[in-house]
From TrEMBL:
Name of protein: Monooxygenase 2-like
SUPFAM superfamilies recorded: FAD/NAD(P)-binding domain
Alphabetical UniProt keywords: Monooxygenase, Oxidoreductase
Family: Belongs to the 3-hydroxybenzoate 6-hydroxylase family.
Domain of life: Eukaryota
Molecular function, one GO term: FAD binding
Gene that specifies this protein: LOC120250540
Organism: Dioscorea cayennensis subsp. rotundata
Residue ranges constituting the FAD-binding domain according to the UniProt record: 12-361
InterPro entries according to UniProt: FAD-bd, FAD/NAD-bd_sf, MOase
Amino acid sequence: MEFENGEKMVHEVVIVGAGIAGLAAALALKRVGIKSLVLERSSELRATGTALVILHNAWRALEVLGVADKLDKPYQDFQLATGSITNLVTGVRQEFSMISGSTSGKTRMRPIHRKFLLETLAAELPPESIRFMSKLSSIKTEVSKDSFSVTVLEMEDGSVIRAKVVIGCEGVHSAVAKWLGLAAPISSGRSAVRGVSIYPEGHGFKKQHNQYFMGNGIKGGFVPISNTEIYWYLNKKSNPQDQEIAREAKMIKWEVLKTAKDFPLEYRQVVSNCDLSSLTLAPLLFRVPWNIVLGPSHYGGVTVAGDAFHPMTPDLGQGGCSALEDAVVLARNIANTPNNVNLGIENYVKERRWRAARLVGASYLSGVLEPWQSRRMLSRMWESFRQYAFNWLLHSKYGTLNYDCGTLTTADESFALNKDK
């Protein structure tokens, strides 16, 4: 719903960015009876990252959003129950279960196509909810004749959009996060290559997550998405040539094969069989945990979610999962305070920042310690941390998989954010 501010139209909620966080936030708000407008700078839904593994905590969020079944059915045969970690320096290989020990009897972990997730979320939104080719230029605030604050978004095409609530979901380089005053994400010193390999006749690999570690910060792995597709990745130390290499898919592929020359043949064969159009190479950035906890993550009716709030390295697989959690928690808190939306946003930030900071910190530490695991002096330290982190991931009451984002209740029909003065 929109309302008039003099002669100017003001949207209830504008979401900047049509990624996982943005579309999930729009759908969560719809579930509580609030209409939103999503602004996307591209001409279509973007699927950077090719695929991701949806862990159990994210499935809970998807159930609340009402799309879990639509995402679950196409990937039912690819429940990830097991995995392996191989240290290519020492030759030690460890098998692990991703299911046993969970406090839930219905633990689900499945790899899915990122584009399919975005399309599924977008399909649940009303027509014209997403406005493409809308690139944000600047942000400012103004006070209406009725004495409530409105956020003014100026677009590159000269258009102006006014909103009572603005949610920045446009990724690690978020303009909304910058406007709020959040510290810029910093480099982890590593870069990630991601791709999908196609096997029209079937690949024959087991349905499990295979990881490989080398010295010098090199980690790779692959996960079957279906009987004919495999998602794979390689994390490595960043170098000055990465930006140039990233412009050419063939150069990315060559770089991976060179870096992973000592990886098992099966991994190199998967890379060799990749779909060049799926390849991406990007630096791994993160926002330091104390900036997430103490930084200005909201101001009045403006806040951030997903990577715009808490960018993290992929070492615990929680980037997309935590964005889905954000969406539910944000909508729930706004719906709980219909007459004071600013308080709802403040409560959302309070509820999310400590969990987000823990996820960012644990992910970063995991990535930092991995390169040292082959060194005898620190190998025990690494193994202890990995065992602790994995147990926390699966078993802890407040751990990653057991996190409960809550439920959403449809708001009263009279609900309107403009009640907040």
